[in-house]
Write a sequence for this structure.
């Protein structure tokens, strides 16, 4: 029997784009190879140690926690581009929990103090935190090995003795590696000699970067993705052998048979390493309560004060609910948590920072409501506390808070100041290689033509959670490509191999952790864009008992805040937005009209259309609307609207469902309703009902089989005590109970959290209320909030026109930094003009307080010299800011530089005391004599003035180049730029999809030619319609036939297909481009009618039972005729209507109908 061996040098997928040892596969392989321990030593970081630990425990393999750190040539604080560019490596392993804490400190300071290209540590840090750590001298990049390769044996020996002294005898090892490299043979020989001379022990490792020998191919491609190279590049980063895999003990013993002690020492080290994580301990910060109170007493006092404030009459039911929640909060140890949240929200509100009404499941808590953490009454809206905090599922509470986005940072600063900067950190998040992204990344790395890669990537359905395996199962066309095209199969196989791996680390947009002690007492720290974050993500922080919160910046809150300020200034009305009436018919009329641009959650094209159909009459309708308008639940919308309009037709499977489903017209809409059903019909406890809801949502089949039995027949313990009554005991027939359970399973995967939807609905109503009663102030605030987004401003300006609100040009005597109100008009803000900063704006406002500007020269003289710069002034001239001073833009552009230079010179002379005779009498000399008189030149043509406005503000104010074509555009366009952009937005348009044929007219504002590999010309166009820009790609075949129209300022009709990619703006791939003329519009009108009709049609198929063979034949037929028409399949035996994935939507013709009728029967195909 061979010696025991343990791998102590291993890089997981968290050595980003370098390690290809997936933690999820590692321990199975370790077990197969007969090893009982293994270490993780990722480069410079500890991102993966918790996943590694948990997976190891699952397999009964000892997880050894470590890191391969980078060492600085000098001090970690030295960052010279020449002296400090080369870094060494060292492997550190934690012997126990104290060693783990020291490892955390070292790795954290590598980022927070030593970062220079990589996170670097130095020997001072090692000296300070060496206790209970084992150190290995690492690979060829180790400091000792480098000295050996530099023929500096004595230097290597000196350093080895230094490290041995730092870590103590028996805790430092000289590391031998053999991957078949010549340099390693030289180094190993000298390391063995060094060991003999110093007594420092040897250890054998393999520098594991992938799991099996065959994985070197995938690893090589991963390196190409990391470096942006292709496998054909000769000068790329590449490992020099294919031996960097997880070798068996026998392979390692054979390699190091001449030094058996190096193998034995791996087990000796493994035996010394015993780190254990405690996932049952919380490290919540303590809140300092006023003297004379315990935290429990203080929380209770605040809640009862809030109860009296929130409710006119405090009933026994309210007290009972409050006491119940407080008892759970106390029992679970979260009293300080609630006090901390109450405190920083109180700080925000006391300091005029607008806070959202709530977010997520905390809306279900009356404690949160009485503490002013939320503004949604959980009693009125029947929200459930256990959805937020469940005593039967011990997890950290999750309160996410929205603040006005411009002042969110102030709240975080308050928390940092109160608890200490060392106890507060932001949270890391990892971007992973999603299905389409993995295909594109690998395609680039293997140098496959873009068009081929793009074609394959697009066969992966564009939806959340999609994987390549799922796509192959769902899409027969992709499966066919995979089976018939060898090169495509290679691409897809490699993409599957890297799919889901972390690609990069960044800072979570909102997450903040607050710890009891310094954060790096518990978790390692990372540095990203000068922000200190944790190295563990939110989920892991919660598992480790740390308090995490989301401090979210919400633009819509800033809109509300600015609108309220404008209303007070211009109408003299002070509004408390949290106390407006929520039953105002006029507000619901506005929402029902679909005129909800700018209204939170209700402004997308599809949502506006839905609101017109839904015609909400109360907040409950808006809550339901927000919950339903998502992929999945959208299928229930027709039934919901039908039931709402015809309440007499609503039926319930059992009378006990009526009180639960009445509020949603007999439809299951919310997760909370699932909880109520199992509780009221099945007799579940509050806490267990939440567990069932979670199991259904996550499709945990094993759990659901058991729960179905309990729901129907109940559960009795070994003593005969009834734990769950079950439906049958409650008088509900078994078959009815079964059907109800089936309905819940079908729905639960799409069900929405009502508490969250209620919070959103409150904000939707508040913004709709402001738009309804104060449209001018609301629209001004709204446009200010999107000042950097010219497309949005153009859309809102168009909305203003529909409301009869005039938009005034920016003006030197009237404009401020933001959009402002002038009577019933909105004045453009100066900050929206390119190159115009807050400094010159403040100077303008200050000068204007004395008196208004009378001329351009008057303006130049009175503005502070440091703020008067040519770029800003030129931009303001082009934007028409000076038009009201009886001067045209052509005149000013001819002389503004000369005037500014003259004024600067005069002011410098005044400062230097060089007063000329001219200067002495300057006050009595007219401005026209000081500087050249403005030239007598004509104003630019109107189209140039519009171009200037577009250049400086991103939009047209004085008109639009397409205004005269508006009627033609409306006749022929099947989509506009706003609808196109919305396709990538949450809650955006579901009407269009990738590959849809569309027609969009507009003006070409930019053209960029490109030569293809085949030496043909293609073009990238930016085409602008009435709402904003769209990118259009014109491939060579289309380019050649449309060349005469492809120039800037050309007004055209683009006919093409939507091109949708993750993390990119949607584009149009042009099939044809025509001039926008009456004749061409006339020719296209029939096509437009067809395209628009296609969207509204549906194809219905019927099967008697779930016949998988027939379903596969149907899929095959549908996949050959992809188009816009949704397909539904009704299974008669199960009374179920299934909606086909968008990849199976079709274009209908006689042939496809004929084929489908052959499969399902003559009467089982309908087009509606």
């Amino acid at each position: 029997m061979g010696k025991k061996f343990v791998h102590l040098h291993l890089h997981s997928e968290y050595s980003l784009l370098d390690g290809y040892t997936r933690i999820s596969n590692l321990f199975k392989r370790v077990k197969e190879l007969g090893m009982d321990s293994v270490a993780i030593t990722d480069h410079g970081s500890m991102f993966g140690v918790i996943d590694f630990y948990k997976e190891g425990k699952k397999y009964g393999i000892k997880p050894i926690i470590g890191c391969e750190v980078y060492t600085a040539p000098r001090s970690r604080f030295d960052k010279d581009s020449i002296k400090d560019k080369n870094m060494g490596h060292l492997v550190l392993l934690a012997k126990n929990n104290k060693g783990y804490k020291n490892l955390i400190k070292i790795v954290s300071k590598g980022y927070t103090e030593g970062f220079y290209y990589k996170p670097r540590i130095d020997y001072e840090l090692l000296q300070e935190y060496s206790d209970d750590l084992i150190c290995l001298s690492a690979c060829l990049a180790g400091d000792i090995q480098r000295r050996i390769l530099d023929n500096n044996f004595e230097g290597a020996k000196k350093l080895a003795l230094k490290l041995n002294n730092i870590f103590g005898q028996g805790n430092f090892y000289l590391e031998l590696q053999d991957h078949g490299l010549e340099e390693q043979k030289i180094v190993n020989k000298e390391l063995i000699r060094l060991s003999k001379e110093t007594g420092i022990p040897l250890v054998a490792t393999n520098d594991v970067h992938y799991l099996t020998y065959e994985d070197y191919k995938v690893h090589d491609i991963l390196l190409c993705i990391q470096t942006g190279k292709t496998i054909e590049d000769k000068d790329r980063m590449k490992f020099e052998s294919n031996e960097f895999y997880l070798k068996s003990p026998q392979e390692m013993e054979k390699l190091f048979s001449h030094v058996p002690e190096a193998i034995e020492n791996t087990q000796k080290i493994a035996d010394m390493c015993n780190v254990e994580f405690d996932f049952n301990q919380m490290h919540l910060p303590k809140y300092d309560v006023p003297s004379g109170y315990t935290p429990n007493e203080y929380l209770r006092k605040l809640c009862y004060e809030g109860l009296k404030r929130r409710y006119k009459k405090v009933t026994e039911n309210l007290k009972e609910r409050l006491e119940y929640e407080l008892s759970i909060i106390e029992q679970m140890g979260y009293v300080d948590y609630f006090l901390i949240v109450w405190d920083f929200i109180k700080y925000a509100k006391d300091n005029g920072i607008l806070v959202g009404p709530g977010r997520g499941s905390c809306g279900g808590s009356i404690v949160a409501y009485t503490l002013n953490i939320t503004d949604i009454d959980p009693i009125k809206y029947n929200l459930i506390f256990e959805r937020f905090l469940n005593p039967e599922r011990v997890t950290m509470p999750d309160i996410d808070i929205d603040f006005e986005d411009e002042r969110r940072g102030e709240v975080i600063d308050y928390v940092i100041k109160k608890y200490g900067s060392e106890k507060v950190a932001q949270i890391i998040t990892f971007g992973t290689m999603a299905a389409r992204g993995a295909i594109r990344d690998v395609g680039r790395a293997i140098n496959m033509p873009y068009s081929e890669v793009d074609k394959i990537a697009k066969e992966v359905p564009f939806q959340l959670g999609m994987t390549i395996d799922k796509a192959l199962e769902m899409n027969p066309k992709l499966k066919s490509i995979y089976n018939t095209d060898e090169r495509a199969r290679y691409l897809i196989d490699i993409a599957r191999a890297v799919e889901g791996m972390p690609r990069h680390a960044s800072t979570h947009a909102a997450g903040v952790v607050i710890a009891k002690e310094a954060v790096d007492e518990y978790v390692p720290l990372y540095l990203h864009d000068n922000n200190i974050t944790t190295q563990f993500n939110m989920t892991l922080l919660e598992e480790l008992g740390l308090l995490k919160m989301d401090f979210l910046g919400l633009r819509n809150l800033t809109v509300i805040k600015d609108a309220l300020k404008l209303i007070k200034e211009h109408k003299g009305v002070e509004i408390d937005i949290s106390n407006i009436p929520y039953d105002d018919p006029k507000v619901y009329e506005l929402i029902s009209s679909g005129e909800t641009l700018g209204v939170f959650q209700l402004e997308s094209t599809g949502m506006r259309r839905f609101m017109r159909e839904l015609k909400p009459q109360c907040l409950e309708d808006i809550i339901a609307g927000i919950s339903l308008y998502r992929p999945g639940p959208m299928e229930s919308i027709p039934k919901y609207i039908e039931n709402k309009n015809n309440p007499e037709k609503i039926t319930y499977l059992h009378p006990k469902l009526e009180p639960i489903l009445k509020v949603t017209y007999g439809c299951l809409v919310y997760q909370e309703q699932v909880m109520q059903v199992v509780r009221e019909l099945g007799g579940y406890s509050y806490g267990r009902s939440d567990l069932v809801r979670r199991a259904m949502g996550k499709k945990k089949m094993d759990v659901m089989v058991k729960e179905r039995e309990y729901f129907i027949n109940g559960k009795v313990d070994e003593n005969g005590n009834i734990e769950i009554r079950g439906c049958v005991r409650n008088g509900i027939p078994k078959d009815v109970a079964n059907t109800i359970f089936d309905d819940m399973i079908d729905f639960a995967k799409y069900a929405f959290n009502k508490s969250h939807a209620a919070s959103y609905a409150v904000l939707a109503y508040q913004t709709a209320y402001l738009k309804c009663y104060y449209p001018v102030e609301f629209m001004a605030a709204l446009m200010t909030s999107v000042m950097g987004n010219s497309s949005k401003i153009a859309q809102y300006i168009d909305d203003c026109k529909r409301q009869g609100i005039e938009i005034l040009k920016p003006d030197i005597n009237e404009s401020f930094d933001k959009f402002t109100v002038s009577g019933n008009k909105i004045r453009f803000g100066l900050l929206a003009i390119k190159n115009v900063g807050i400094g010159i704006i403040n100077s303008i406002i200050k000068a204007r307080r004395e008196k208004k500007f009378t001329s351009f020269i008057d303006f130049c003289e009175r503005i502070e010299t440091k703020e008067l710069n040519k770029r800003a002034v030129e931009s303001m001239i082009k934007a028409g800011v000076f038009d009201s001073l009886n001067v045209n833009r052509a005149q000013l552009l001819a002389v503004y530089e000369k005037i500014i230079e003259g004024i600067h010179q005069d002011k410098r002379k005044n400062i230097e005391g060089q007063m000329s005779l001219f200067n002495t009498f300057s006050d009595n000399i007219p401005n026209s004599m000081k500087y050249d008189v403005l030239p007598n030149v004509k104003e630019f043509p109107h189209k140039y003035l519009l171009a200037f406005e577009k250049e400086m503000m991103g939009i047209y104010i004085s008109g639009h180049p397409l205004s005269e074509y508006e009627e033609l555009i409306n006749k022929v366009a099947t989509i506009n730029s706003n609808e196109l952009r919305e396709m990538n937005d949450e809650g955006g348009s579901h009407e269009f999809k990738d590959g849809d044929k569309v027609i969009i007219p507009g003006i070409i504002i930019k053209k960029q030619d490109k030569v293809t590999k085949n030496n043909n010309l293609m073009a990238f166009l930016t085409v602008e319609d009435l709402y904003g820009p769209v990118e259009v790609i014109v491939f060579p075949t289309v380019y050649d036939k449309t060349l005469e129209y492809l120039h800037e300022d050309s007004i055209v009709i683009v006919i093409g297909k939507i091109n949708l990619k993750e993390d990119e703006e949607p584009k149009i791939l042009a099939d044809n481009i025509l001039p926008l003329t009456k004749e061409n519009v006339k020719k296209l009108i029939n096509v437009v009618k067809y395209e628009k009709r296609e969207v509204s049609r549906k194809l219905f198929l019927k099967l008697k039972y779930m016949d998988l063979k027939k379903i596969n034949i149907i899929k095959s037929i549908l996949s050959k005729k992809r188009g816009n028409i949704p397909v539904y399949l009704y299974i008669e035996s199960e009374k179920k209507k299934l909606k086909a994935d968008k990849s199976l939507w079709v274009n209908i013709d006689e042939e496809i109908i004929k084929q489908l009728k052959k499969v399902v029967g003559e009467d089982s195909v309908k087009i509606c």
User: Anything to note?
Assistant: DSSP finds 48 helices and 28 strands in the chain. The chain has a mean pLDDT of 89.
